[in-house]
């Protein structure tokens, strides 16, 4: 029998965590022949909710679900024992009147502990996807505290931005979203991110040839994607949940399967200096995977307009890194 994969989800009882678990258990992400053991991790006060989720997982009778284990976040070494994947979703969301820098200071220590525990207990080949915001900088903190885990195994989530951008281009071009490919998200998962229409393709043609309203591409398109999270909150009264869970699962699927030629995956990874992005920060790049290893795709066009947008979002990431300097070993 195939050895089960152990997949840990922090914040498992939260709205994104809840929307993630059932699809992880169903066989959709790792395949119908790959058993999965879920490690559900929550704050001590949310353990009751995990019991309910466990019942629901049992009630789905998923053939690929080989086990459910529940853990409190105050014993992370136990929670991460031998795990192959960690989805770091649990964190404190931004409250009213809270600045981004306040959030970094509140959530930063969570990721210090997360990194240390992953380093101590997880599989040596563990892959980590950080969703909890500010996800790029939280990923940097956790990675910095896990010196024994390869740097290539750390990701922060920009896939929701990529999916949002692809949909906006499809709507504008009046084409199905499947016709839109190669959309990169550069920099930070924040309102400074740069959704790159310059290298995007629609039906294999440059998006800027299919969509001739270049003013729309340079202004409305970018700001719509940058502000989409806030627009969902304003309309729904709660932040993106199912779409965020979907994006986390899309990220995992895209990394464990080969990337089709002519397309890219969007995720934030440790910069190696590609495209002039300062080394040592976690930035969104266009990636491709062979199903095991990924690389930053080279050769994307970066003109003066894109350069200024990329520089702005990288500057924000540098500021975030400086805000948490004392949390980086
Ligand atoms: P919820 O508040 O619904 O759920 C968070 C859960 O995490 C709660 O159940 C809480 O008990 C738990 N938690 C808090 N601290 C924890 C810790 N130290 N260990 C384990 N669990 C802990 O938030 P939700 O809507 O699920 O959002 C989760 C995170 O995703 C937030 O930080 C949010 O900002 C971030 N997002 C990131 C996105 C991205 O694209 N990267 C988009 C969606 C989302 O906004």
From TrEMBL:
Binding of NAD(+), residues: 11-17, 107, 131-133
PROSITE patterns: MDH
Positions of the Lactate/malate dehydrogenase N-terminal domain: 6-149
Stored InterPro entries: L-lactate/malate_DH (IPR001557), Lactate/malate_DH_C (IPR022383), Lactate/malate_DH_N (IPR001236), Lactate_DH/Glyco_Ohase_4_C (IPR015955), Malate_DH_AS (IPR001252), Malate_DH_type2 (IPR010945), NAD(P)-bd_dom_sf (IPR036291)
Family matches, as HAMAP family: Malate_dehydrog_2
PANTHER family listed in its UniProt record: MALATE DEHYDROGENASE
Name of the protein in question: Malate dehydrogenase
